[in-house]
Amino acid sequence: MTYTDKLTKAVRSSGSLLCVGLDPDPARIPAPMRQIYSDEAELVFEFCRRIVEATKPHACAFKPNMAFFEAMGSRGWETLERVIDIIPSNRVVIADAKRGDIGNTAAKYSEAMFGHLGADAVTLNPLMGLDTLEPFIKDDSKGVYTLVMTSNSGAADFLKRRFEGRSSLSEYIAEELSKLQHRSAASLGMVVGATQTRDLSLVLDANPNAHLLIPGVGSQGGDITELTAVLENYGGIPVINSSRSILYAGGDSEEWMSASAARALDLKVELQPIMKGYAEEAS
Amino acid sequence: MTYTDKLTKAVRSSGSLLCVGLDPDPARIPAPMRQIYSDEAELVFEFCRRIVEATKPHACAFKPNMAFFEAMGSRGWETLERVIDIIPSNRVVIADAKRGDIGNTAAKYSEAMFGHLGADAVTLNPLMGLDTLEPFIKDDSKGVYTLVMTSNSGAADFLKRRFEGRSSLSEYIAEELSKLQHRSAASLGMVVGATQTRDLSLVLDANPNAHLLIPGVGSQGGDITELTAVLENYGGIPVINSSRSILYAGGDSEEWMSASAARALDLKVELQPIMKGYAEEAS
pTM of whole model > 0.90? Predict the structure, then answer.
């Protein structure tokens, strides 16, 4: 099955474009969990397990953020392996790794993310050049999402500046990815921030059929109504990520799982206007 | 002790600017080792242990390449933890991670690399903006090496193109790092490829006092004589990395450790012209 097929099925079976970001910060995990599990790795695993359980009816994808697991070293990686194992096979797993390196190093990262962890897709950083993406796009059952436009203030340092006559380096990267897509069977998606809709339009015009991973909805403040307008008539599948707004929706309440589930459901409903044809075509 | 102090002492006590890159590829580990250790993680650990043992008289630094450990998942991370533990404390450990992410994610990567792994320095990717470096430069006992100019062919895609009136995006990044260094107590180094000396000169002019991590000597073909000329009168400490040319110097010979030691010694000697004042000032 190609990555696009798997993603399409996940969107249809969940009826949702929501991606739940797994950024488990032990200090913010609800107190009722912290009281049960004193071991940090076990706490993180059990928290993620419950988040997956609570939100899977409302999400097409889960995006583990590697940094939050690596902060616990090898035990964190072991925890991540266990978390990925319990994500249902009809949902997509996107390893948020933002790796970017050359030749044999990139091949080893590909082996780590796709081979060892078994992720369906990975986020990548293109700064060192398009050849750094090659080892990740040999297999059309796997997807990549390349950093194109981010929503942090630092995006102004490089990504938003004019480049090669284009409005921004982001727009130029999107064009280059579009060209590379013509030579590749694999799915070459883009990571694009949701907070600046005018910039987003320019980037989408440069590469109008790529799948999108859109962070910045929820805690980071992206506006779903504006996003809906920008994505109208867009060709790829846009997956919209929210992490903290779902994970920590219930604070330290005993009912934190219900709060996370309710927040995920709210987002799923808010995202319905973007769904367009995906849900209607569901079998 | 600041990172600069630790690096200076490591250079003086080893009399060397050589960094040994630890990119342990199980398929290329010498046959005599593969015959002893059937478990891949154990094989990698024992190989790295012997490489550190054989080359430490000739190197100021060791640079584990995260990808080669991550390809083995949590066991790879565990192996990396063990490898870092046996690197002598009077040598510098540079985690070659090339991470780059925002706010709380960057903070978690910093916790992973400096806190958990105990690396002295880390390589970073600046594409998402200078704010992504902040969590790594709060502590002057730790160093960072930011990707500025790489030696792969893909460097032509973005890094080598004109940017903001400068000769290249690389030059612009170097300038921005120089400005950031004025506001930071931590050591803000640069990763610069050794293969294009003219481009290297422009980048160094833009940021003439940063420490350097220079890959591309050995297997990747950087010329040490040209490099010596470019680095003359340069203010920072240039650490020159070689990985495969040292690790696999002996092929499958029983004498592979001696071959790796000899290759490291050769490189140490070849790099002496660059040493300038460092060795003479050694106590």
Answer: yes
Dig out the tokens for B278 from the structure: 């460092």
| Phi, psi angle pair for A213, to nearest 5° | -115, 115
Residue of A81, A130, A173 lying closest to B154 (CB–CB): A130
Interface test with B, best of A70, A84, A179 (most B CBs within 10 A): A70
Determine the Cα–Cα distance for residues A104 and A107; give it in Å rounded to an integer.
5
How many contiguous H segments (helices) and E segments (strands) does chain A have? 13, 8
Amino acid at A242: S
Closest CA to B94 of B241, B246, B209: B241
Give the burial class of A50: count Cβ atoms within 10 A of its Cβ; 0-12 exposed, 13-18 middle, 19 or more buried: middle
pLDDT digits (tens, 9 = 90+) for B145-157: 999 999 899 999 9
Nearest to B34 by CA among B20, B24, B21: B24
What's the pLDDT tens digit per position in B184-232?
Answer: 989 999 999 877 788 889 999 999 999 999 997 765 556 778 888 889 8
pLDDT tens by residue, B165-190? 999 999 999 999 999 999 998 999 99
Residue-range domains of chain B with CATH: 3-280 (3.20.20.70)
Kindly list the catalytic residues of B. 98
* Residues B250 and B204: beta-carbon distance below 8 Å: no
> In B183-280, where does DSSP find H-type helix?
197-206, 224-231, 244-247, 256-270, 272-275, 277-280
pLDDT of residue A280: 55
